[in-house]
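Lecture 7 notes: from sequence to structure.
We start with the chain below.
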Amino acid sequence: MLNSVGKFIYLHIHVKIDTMISLSVLEDIVEEHTKYIQREKVIHRDLADEVEKSLDYEEITVVKGVRRAGKTFLLYELFRKHGGLYINFEDERLYGFTLEDFEKLNDIASRINASFMFLDEVQVVQGWEKFAHRAHRRIKIVVTGSNSSLLGSDYSSALVGRTKSYSVFPLSYNEFLRFCSLENERNSFLEYMRIGGFPRIVLTGDIELAKEYLDSIIYKDLIGHHNIRNPQALRNLIVFLLSNVGKEFSYRSLKTVSGLKHDQTIKEYIGLLEDVFLVNTIMRYSPSLKKQARYGKKIYAVDPAFIHLGKRGDADHGRILENVIFLHLKRKGYDLYYGMDKKEVDFIIAKGLRPLKIVNVTYMAENEKTREREISSLKFFMDTMKVPAEIISLYPFKIPDNINFHLAHRYFNSESN
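Predicted structure tokens for the same chain:
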């Protein structure tokens, strides 16, 4: 059963509203957004530099990422530097916006002499790709969306080869330091592990917002857009996965905890969670794609704040640290696997199927047994794959000379990664 919020969102997404948006209302919304952006405090995001370069391209710039990661404020930053027309399609006054209404936006853009059109959360407008295809040579278009299938509709084939895409994550550790005006030290990193990188949570310190964000993803992006027959099973699955980041699973093993009966349904649900950027799945490494498909998988959350919503007896600092390192490597664009073959390693960094480096992550190697396990696993894979290895820990300990060691809070500025 959907709660009242879920029903409200569902109805607004699925009930067609025939009332078109008047030109005067659109003008008021555009003007209001412009004034609001000029008043708002905007802190620089690293990705903005890359996205800004694309403003010179004819291609449509596509910015995708999980809700509340900062896509909107990235557009604010670009808008304040370059001007243009900005509109957010999650403004409730725009319910019922149709493909025909884009022509009114075109008229407004022409009247204000705008060179750029910033369309925030544009995926709520069915067929937006048709407008973008027709207009992108006349005005530079930048769009954002909270769904990796932003270009997955029946209309998107027209945009093949005409887009340049970027992925927005919650704040990296270095951005977190900038937002909080903190020095790079262990205590700062521990705070990052505790509250994560969602900008609003970072600026307010209100970790409880993470639950609101998760509910918004579940009801707006999942239940609101897909035929979810068992919403409670979906929530059970999400909570279990967030409680077990970095642990191997199979679709079959998730049936009991979720209450779902079929492996295929679980596979589809996890695909949806990846589609809205809530989680990332990595495969167990094998040079054979067929073997990879048969092996178990591991999952990581898009931000540490969501991990704390899982259910555990106590906080698993090691898993949270591993998740933070995963996100850093993911931002770098690496192909990532985990290794399991007599021994286990956390990450195999690869180019396609060619291993480049092996990484183990440990919060605190406090005893000899833990240190030996971490080192022996790296040595095994080093000998097998003939690639270098490194270990990342929050606290120092002695390792062999042929393995690189990084303190976690310094790893993000290391040239080796």
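Points to note: Confidence is low (pLDDT under 50) at residues 7-18. Residues 211 and 311 are 13 Å apart (CA to CA).
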